[in-house]
Amino acid sequence: MASSGKGTFQPDSDVHISFEDQQKINKFARLNAKVDDIKQELKTKQNDLKNLDEAVDELGLADDTEKIPYLIGEVFVCQSLEETLKSLEVTKSKKDDEIKELHAKYAELKSQMGELKVHLYGKFGSHINLENEED
């Protein structure tokens, strides 16, 4: 029975992987792992930013005379509404900067991965699969 299915293992294929090529494959794998970590961190920070936006919206309904508990580290500090809103804006600004920095790192890593893909696919063609299932 001859199998013509896609992805069939061919033990006699003439693919030789040099040390340099293996290093590039390993580098691609490390970059791919970093990209996955950055994606996860981006999701977390974007969720944090969304929560901060919701907190600002909720505080819009608060009375000016109330003291608002605000978490700093592991301690709640009671602040006026105005001080709390200022603190939230500072925190949002920092979170925005962190997100921008992560996007820049993500773009740089994807660029490096693109260069490696061109080289590795050029050399190995269909004998190598560098595509991520979730992309």
Characterise this structure.
The chain has 135 residues and is mainly alpha-helical. It has 2 helices and 2 strands; from the N terminus they run αββα. The chain has helices spanning 19-59, 81-124; strands at residues 67-72, 75-80. A two-stranded antiparallel ribbon has the order 1-2. α1 (19-59) runs antiparallel to α2. The chain is rod-shaped and about 80 Å long. Residues 1-10 have low confidence and may be disordered.
Task: Summarize the SSE layout with pairings.
Layout: H1 19-59, E1 67-72, E2 75-80, H2 81-124
Antiparallel strand pairs: 1-2
Helix pairs in contact: 1-2
Keywords:
2 strands; disordered N terminus; 135 residues; mainly alpha
Summarize the structure.
With 135 residues, the chain is mainly α. The protein has helices at residues 19-59, 81-124, and strands at 67-72, 75-80.
Average pLDDT works out at 87
Instruction: Estimate what percentage of residues fall within beta strands.
Output: 5-15%
Report the radius of gyration as a whole number of Å: 25 Å
Largest sheet: 2 strands, antiparallel
Q: How many H/I helical runs?
A: 2
Structural class: mainly alpha
The total strand number stands at: 2
The main sheet orders its strands as: 1-2
Please bin the fraction of helical residues: 55-70%
**Looking at the structure, what is the overall shape?**
rod-shaped
Helix-strand pattern, N to C?
Answer: HEEH
Give the termini separation.
35 Å
Uncertain regions spanning at least 5 consecutive residues: 1-10
